[in-house]
Amino acid sequence: MNKNVSVLIGSLRRGSYARKIAHNLINYFPDNYNASIIEIRNLPLYDFDYDDPQIIDKPTPPEYTLFRKTIKSSDGVLFVTPENNRTIPACLKNAIDIGSKPNNDVIWQRLPAGIISHSVGRMGGYSSQKNLRLALSYFNMPTPGQPEVFLSQSPTLLDADGQVTQESTVEFLQNYVSRLVQLIEQNTDSR
Predict the structure, then answer these.
(1) What is the pTM of this model?
(2) Beta carbons within 10 angstroms of residue 134's beta carbon
(3) Domain total of the chain
């Protein structure tokens, strides 16, 4: 049976390194896995009024409903994110907040998650990944263990076509995706 993995990119820029890395990662999933990028660029900023049953003049945006439905039908999620000012990019935090409501129907609960961070510098997006892990821990989302993936100096990892070509990096990323797949298989019935 095919499994669905939603790939969320923590950058809105069309030509971002995170997006290029994500496109590489999609190809590392097995044939029976449908990994696809779920765009978060058009999600309105989270406002609890949209989910408050007492507020009747602010209906839930259709973008929220579609996003929540898509993630809910996923068997796992893969976050690929840069670091912005030592934390999670705002667009990604917004998506997490949207998925955390309504309280009785949190889409993230126990959803297996992979996290790959990167930076153009040497830290590999360490701070964004740690902040993202902190947010996701609230929802009991299992993640692959060590080694974590912090891609430093990410522009040097990609060729002119946006492909990761260094064999050791390809193997490292393929191994991480394999561990995420194993985690999804182990948690299929827990949601």
Answers:
(1) 0.95
(2) 10
(3) 1
